[in-house]
Amino acid sequence: MITTLNQDTITTMQAGIEALKRDYKTLRTGKVNPAILDNITVDYYGTDTELSKVATIIANDATTITISPWEKNLLKDIEQAISTANIGVNPNNNGESVVLYFPPMTVEQRHLSAKSAKAMTDHAKVSIRNNRKHANDIIKQALKDKNITEDDSKQKQEDIQKLTDKFNTKADEIFNTKEAEILKV
Predict the structure, then answer these.
(1) The domain that contains 9 carries what CATH number?
(2) What is the helix (H) or strand (E) element at residue 36, kind and residue range?
(3) Which pick of 6, 18, 19, 145 has the fewest CB atoms within 10 Å?
């Protein structure tokens, strides 16, 4: 367990960074991204199904998304799901597809979106620190069980701290890039 601890910790911390990137896709920036609809589900024959699995979602331009369901009887359900999701736009049903027209973002909306990105980043950093704690607990248990020496324990804990610092810095870099993208007019 101790021999693969660094690699296991890197894997779990990297998963936290990947989750952060996925979360960022749900934020609105200057141009619309179909990923803003990722968390929306539709009742598809009694099963809650992701919108992307029952329709084609296309960003036509910087302010418009078109959702074309594979079955026309889903139009009303899609319209209802989008209204319930409260993503900041009203769905427009033209009989063939649902069109979402996003107004240009105001400065206030941009700042709120940046604030949400910061909260997502903080959540990812907490996850990284929890991974550090888990790894350190394993190291302390190995020391207690006399599977490693005191010096090995200190060295491994230093290695884990270096990994934590590296991934926290990476999360901050990703946030700075996203914040600049959000605030760019």
Answers:
(1) 1.10.132.20
(2) none
(3) 145
**Does 92 share its domain with 132?**
no
Say how many domains are in the chain.
2
Cβ contact 127:181 at 8 Å: no
127 and 164 both lie in a single domain: yes
What are residue 67's DSSP bridge partners? 57, 98
What are the DSSP calls for 88-157, one per residue? SS-EEE-SS-EEEEPPPPPHHHHHHHHHHHHHHHHHHHHHHHHHHHHHHHHHHHHHHTTSS-HHHHHHHH
pLDDT of residue 140: 92
Structure tokens of 118? Answer: 């910061």
- At 24-60, the pLDDT tens digits run 887 877 788 888 888 889 988 888 899 989 999 999 8
DSSP helix/strand/coil, 60: coil
The continuous run of DSSP H or E covering 41 comes out as strand 41-44
Q: Given the DSSP bridges, would you call strands 55-59 and 47-50 parallel, antiparallel or unpaired?
A: unpaired
pLDDT range class, residue 185, cuts 50, 70, 90 = low
Q: Which of 66, 101, 136 is the last residue of a domain?
A: 101
Please count the CA atoms within 13 angstroms of the CA of 85 that sit on its side-chain side: 22
Identity of residue 158: E
